[in-house]
Amino acid sequence: MDQSQGAPPLDYPIAAPSALDPPDEWARLRSECPVASIRLPSGDGAALLTRYDDVRQVLADPRFTRQLDADDAARLSDNASGGVFNSSMASALPQTGEGHRRWRLMVSKWFTAKRMAALRPRIEAMADELIDRMTANGQPADLKAALGFPLPVWVICDLLGVPDSDRDRFSYWSDALLNLTRYSDDAMRTAQAEFVEYMSGHVRDRRAGTGDDLLSELARATDGDGEPMTDRELVATGMGLLIAGHETTANMIGKMTAMLLADRRRWQRLLEDRSLVRTAVEEALRFDANSGFGMPRYLTEEAEVGGGTLQRGTTVVCSMAAANRDEDAFDEASDMVLGRSPNTHLAFGSGAHSCLGQSLARTELQTVLEVLLRRLPGLELDVEAADLERVEGLIVGGLRELPVRW
């Protein structure tokens, strides 16, 4: 592992100068120390990758696994549970091989372009309702609390057939299961147990009913060999969709809006040319310097990465956000180019474990941006961009709040 001439390990996550800016260390690491030694919140050591080609290589290499509960794997946090990466979800669903391929194939059939297009009017109506409430309460307002946070959980509850009255519970469970340092180990275990108990009952109801939501359809579906998902797999699938589909998208709505308003020429350009919405969303995903922990992997055998050798048993953290700022992969990587195309960013990962719900996330982000441009063309930050504060203690990155006026 590259120790950068014997330098001590960097504390990880690496501090950044502001909520929207990347750590100054990223550029140096990409240039001088592509495989860097880091110390995780647990105190354990790991290797950090920051170059685009290295991150892409590792995410696609089956030797770098999600076996983060191995005896010699680094603990990500000081909580014994290890958070979402070591939850019942991680053990209930097959992580590699044919079992994983089978599961992804069954679930991915639901996330088709046709289904996503059909969801747009519903998502648009939800966004309009939330903006109505926000504007009725007057300005300034916290756009994250008013729109960014509730919208994705409404969408996920809708997809899973969960009653509107249970949305707040889902929000809390999502938050707790993405913990690094914010919640105690007991709180995380309690949240996980509550979620599993709730979803187990919900899955039984879905099996007995004739609903057209995702879980109902998966409960009736079979794979190519005629095998249905087990109840445990269905519960874990619901948990995975909640975690992947709520917190990450909720925070991205806030960050995307903040990025566009931090230099209001960007917002004005979108007002003048709405055809840029799709590429602007992709560029916000690439440009996001506050995406959170990154993607951890456990190495099952020796491998060459970044011009050096990593030993079996190494825990590797892939920083997709740092890789997305790599000048060797993107022209003008440090600038937000709204019309950038193609845009082969790694925000959704790469390879066999790339984000299954990325089409849903894109649909939500594009729809929310279109609604904001239509409803609040005069939208602006109510604080200086440099004064925005990061969320701390969670696996995903985000803003504590997004004060706006319109």
**What's the number of helices?**
15
Shape: globular
CATH topology name: Cytochrome p450
Can you tell me the residue ranges where pLDDT is under 50 for at least 5 consecutive residues? none
Number of domains: 1
In whole angstroms, the N-to-C terminal distance is 50 Å
The main β sheet shows up as: 6 strands, mixed
> Roughly what is the average pLDDT, rounded to an integer?
89
What fraction of residues sit in β-strands? Answer: 5-15%
Superfamily (CATH H level) name:
Cytochrome P450
Q: What is the helix content? A: 40-55%
Radius of gyration: 21 Å
Helix and strand run? EHEEHEHHHEHHHHHHHHEEEEHHEE
Query: How are the strands of the largest sheet arranged?
Result: 1-2-3-9-6-4
Topology record:
Layout (H helix, E strand, L loop, with lengths): L9 E2 L13 H8 L2 E5 L5 E5 L2 H9 L3 E2 L22 H5 L4 H12 L4 H24 L4 E2 H6 L1 H11 L6 H11 L7 H24 L5 H7 L10 H32 L1 H9 L4 H11 L7 E5 L3 E3 L2 E3 L4 E4 L1 H4 L34 H18 L4 E2 L21 E3 L1
Parallel strand pairs: 1-2, 3-9
Antiparallel strand pairs: 2-3, 4-6, 5-11, 6-9, 7-8, 10-11
Helix pairs in contact: 5-7, 5-15, 7-8, 7-11, 8-9, 8-11, 9-11, 11-15, 13-15
Family: Belongs to the cytochrome P450 family.
Pfam family, one: p450
Keywords: Heme, Iron, Metal-binding, Monooxygenase, Oxidoreductase
